[in-house]
Amino acid sequence: MKNFNVIGVMSGTSLDGVDIVYVKFIQNESWSFKIINSKTNHLIASHSYAHPNFKETNENIIIEDFKKAEYFFKTLDIKPNVLVFPRNQVAHLSILKKFNYKFVILCSLNKHWNNW
Fold first, then answer.
1. Angstrom distances, CA of residue 19 to CA of 7, 35, 94
2. pLDDT band at 115 (very low <50, low <70, confident <90, very high)
3. Is pTM, for the whole model, over 0.70?
């Protein structure tokens, strides 16, 4: 078993503040993590796997990308239901329900979409 103590710092595109989190990652046969401390409450959302431009990418590639992201999150026992579109390029909304996304965040536009 290996333990990794990590401090993560982030300021999102909305520039509404700086988030900081202290996390312990544990590597056994699979990865797990525990948030030790954080400055703010954190929402873990998906941002896709390879960050494709949704408006310029066909549906099959988006589905494969979501499957890869889903696999990654599953190894950490995380089931995000929020998506932040890469580059705020909104497209392929019909796919989101298949992957249990219930809410979409568009940071730089300061808009939140749901119930599509």
1. 10, 13, 32
2. very low
3. no
